[in-house]
Design goal:
The complex is a heterodimer.
Chain A: H1 3-29, E1 38-44, E2 56-57, E3 63-72, E4 77-87, E5 107-113, E6 118-133, E7 136-144, E8 147-156, E9 164-176, E10 181-195
Parallel strand pairs in A: 2-10
Antiparallel strand pairs in A: 1-3, 3-6, 4-5, 4-9, 6-7, 7-8, 9-10
Chain B: H1 2-63, H2 69-91, H3 94-165
Helix pairs in contact in B: 1-2, 1-3, 2-3
The chains are: A mainly beta, B mainly alpha.
Chain lengths: ~200, ~180
């Protein structure tokens, strides 16, 4: 083999070796591009499946579902889930404008989730003092995870969908440490409830 | 006649006193409710601020490379108590709200202190790791290049020697 060719091989081996030794330092200086960042927010039925999610509701009966949050934002996050109860005429969160509902929150969950981690908690509810008169249902109280909340909500008979409908929905908020405030995270889950006698 | 007048005045005084007493009682109890609400609101505000501060400290430590899984676990417990306090407040149980909010403060403060310590430790170990990496690169690459150069020199020497040894000798034919 010619000496010139061997010299080129040695130089190539030298460069590859230097690059290999420099790779730990290069990894400190060059950051890989971040993967897609998002949060998952979900509701599951009592069997941890999408089945048996409560719909037809009777007074003084306990119903349960599971709420869950998955953090894929690249760092630990502080989430607050606000549970709200509304009738059909009251506004749900606006997905287009990314604004929360103006209905006041009844109940809240706080969760601190590591990057890639999942938080899950049970949500049990029971409606109390439910009355029906003149094609209108009136609900005076709701119990959430054993805590009683007074609510005064009415819903007129929906002749199209045949029922007295209410919305039990949960909004996901996230703490912004730069601003020092919690902000609506543009995610919510909604349980449409039909009150029955 | 005078006796009737005195009796009427007496009755008026009694009724007025009763009304005054009832009114003042109403106002006092309303004040107590307002005071309770204010107190619970202030305590909840303080607890919320403490949790926000603790989380910001934990996030800062995480950014500097600290392992914050344990701290987040502690914060999750404190956050659960804060949620209980908020829920008690919403349901009208102001006393429980104030008591639960009070419980949050020391928990959040403990997490903040631990997060600051973890941040300092992470900064020191991060700096050490950085210099160790730089040293590994410089020494490793230098040693590699030096060894490669020595091998190359030796190879070159042997190659040249071999070349000279195998050089055909010119002999003069004198005949």
């Amino acid at each position: 083999m010619q000496l010139k060719k061997v010299r080129i091989i040695f130089i190539t081996i030298g460069l590859i070796g230097v690059l290999l030794f420099a790779s730990p330092t290069l990894s400190l200086l060059i950051k890989p591009p971040a993967s897609q960042e998002f949060s998952e927010f979900y509701v599951l039925g009592p069997d941890h499946t999408l089945g048996n999610i409560p719909f037809n509701i009777k007074a003084d009966v306990n119903y349960s579902v599971y709420l869950g949050v998955v953090n894929q934002l690249g760092s630990s996050c502080y989430y607050t889930s606000f549970l709200k109860f509304a009738n059909k005429t009251e506004p749900l969160p606006d997905a287009t404008l990314e604004t929360p509902s103006t209905v006041p929150a009844l109940y809240e969950y706080n969760s601190f989730v590591t990057d890639g981690g999942t938080w899950e908690a049970p949500l049990t509810f029971q409606v109390n003092e439910l009355t029906f008169a003149d094609n209108t249902s009136t609900l005076s109280g709701i119990s959430i995870n054993g805590v009683d909340f007074p609510v005064m909500q009415t819903s007129a008979w929906d002749s199209v969908n045949s029922g007295y409908y209410y919305n039990l929905f949960v909004e996901l908020w996230i703490f912004n440490s730069t601003l020092g405030i919690s902000q609506y995270h543009d995610r919510f889950v909604n349980l449409v409830l039909n009150m029955t006698q | 006649m005078e006796e009737t007048k005195i009796r009427k005045s007496y009755k008026l005084i009694v009724v007025t006193s009763f009304v005054f007493l009832a009114l003042s009682l109403c106002l006092t109890s309303e004040n107590i409710v307002f005071a309770q609400t204010d107190q619970a609101t202030l305590k909840l505000q303080a607890a919320n601020n403490a949790i926000d501060g603790a989380f910001t400290a934990v996030q800062g430590a995480e950014k500097d490379g600290a392992n914050v899984t344990g701290l987040l676990g502690q914060l999750d417990i404190a956050g659960g108590v804060l949620a209980q306090a908020e829920n008690s407040y919403q349901s009208g149980d102001l006393n429980s709200a104030a008591v639960e909010a009070d419980r949050v403060l020391p928990m959040a403060q403990a997490v903040t202190v631990s997060a600051q310590d973890a941040k300092q430790a992470a900064l020191v170990s991060g700096m050490n790791a950085f210099w160790l990496t730089i040293a590994f690169t410089l020494l490793g690459a230098s040693a590699f290049v030096l060894i490669l150069f020595l091998v190359w020199s030796r190879y070159k020497r042997r190659y040249m020697k071999k070349l000279f040894d195998s050089k055909p000798e010119l002999t003069e034919n004198a005949a």
